[in-house]
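Try this one yourself first.
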């Protein structure tokens, strides 16, 4: 079968609606608000095949700027890999992955993706190898202070978050910068109720409380205060421990364990930078595309 390829369909309303329909059916996600709010930029490039005006398969390129050991690195993350159920077993995903590799492999420092359990044997065919991530945690005692939850439906609070995001995360061993768009994908949907301003520390923290565990996804500040002291301010009274959605620079001071996520495995392209060999690290959760 001959299908039509495009990597520039975001401005085509009909194709974008079809793309969102397939994403909703596959992942329960829509990119329409992401687009309407102006966050869908050239850093997110869907490589799509369509048939009779309908998007039938996709694999997206996500361009990220990371800092590791003081060096800036260009990362390519492959995401939103999906095929309509009526068009599977035709090699469409293989075609898209091979096309992405041919166009991007030589222009990045590292290339990676997160795969679900049903395709663990698929990505090694293209030279991807499994990588083990580690997550840090620590006991924590909740403390009180001046904390304001930001309202992500307000343009003023979104702009407030943007200003603090420019500070980046000074506590992260692997920091992602200049990727406000992906941050807002999370903060206007899945984590819209998880954004806090800590007035006492002049910092913004993205965190969620669940049962006795606080998950701290990111911190944007000047780095002038102890991280645990800051995180404790957003912990509710029942919280006993914090887990981090990034690798703290001082990770030796925390408990570290292998990150085991249901239906999620990290693959890194062989021959490119692989920071996970002999290092107990993780990609920041809010950089997952």
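Now uncover the answer:
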């Amino acid at each position: 079968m001959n299908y039509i390829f495009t990597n520039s369909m975001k401005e085509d309303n009909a194709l974008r609606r079809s793309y969102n329909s397939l994403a909703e059916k596959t992942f329960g996600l829509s990119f329409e608000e992401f687009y309407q709010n102006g966050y869908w930029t050239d850093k997110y490039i869907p490589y799509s095949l369509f048939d009779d005006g309908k998007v039938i398969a996709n694999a997206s390129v996500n361009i990220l700027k990371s800092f590791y050991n003081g060096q800036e690195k260009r990362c390519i993350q492959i995401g939103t890999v999906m095929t309509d159920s009526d068009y599977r077993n035709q090699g469409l995903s293989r075609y898209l992955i091979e096309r992405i590799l041919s166009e991007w492999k030589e222009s990045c420092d590292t290339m990676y993706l997160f795969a679900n359990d049903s395709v663990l044997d698929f990505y090694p065919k293209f030279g991807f190898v499994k990588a083990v991530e580690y997550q840090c945690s620590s006991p924590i005692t909740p403390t009180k202070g001046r904390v304001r939850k930001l309202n992500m439906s307000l343009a003023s609070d979104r702009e407030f978050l943007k200003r603090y995001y420019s500070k980046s995360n000074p506590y992260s061993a692997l920091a992602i910068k200049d990727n406000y768009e992906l941050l807002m994908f999370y903060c206007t949907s899945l984590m819209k109720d998880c954004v806090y301003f800590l007035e006492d520390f002049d910092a913004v923290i993205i965190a969620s409380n669940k049962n006795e565990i606080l998950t701290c996804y990111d911190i944007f500040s000047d780095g002038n205060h102890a991280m645990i002291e800051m995180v404790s301010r957003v912990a509710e009274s029942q919280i006993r421990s914090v887990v981090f959605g990034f690798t703290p620079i001082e990770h030796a001071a925390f408990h570290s364990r292998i990150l085991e996520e249901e239906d999620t495995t990290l693959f890194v392209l062989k021959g490119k930078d692989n920071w996970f060999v002999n290092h107990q690290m993780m990609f920041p959760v809010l950089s997952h595309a």
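Discussion: The radius of gyration is 20 Å. The CA atoms of residues 110 and 273 lie 5 Å apart.
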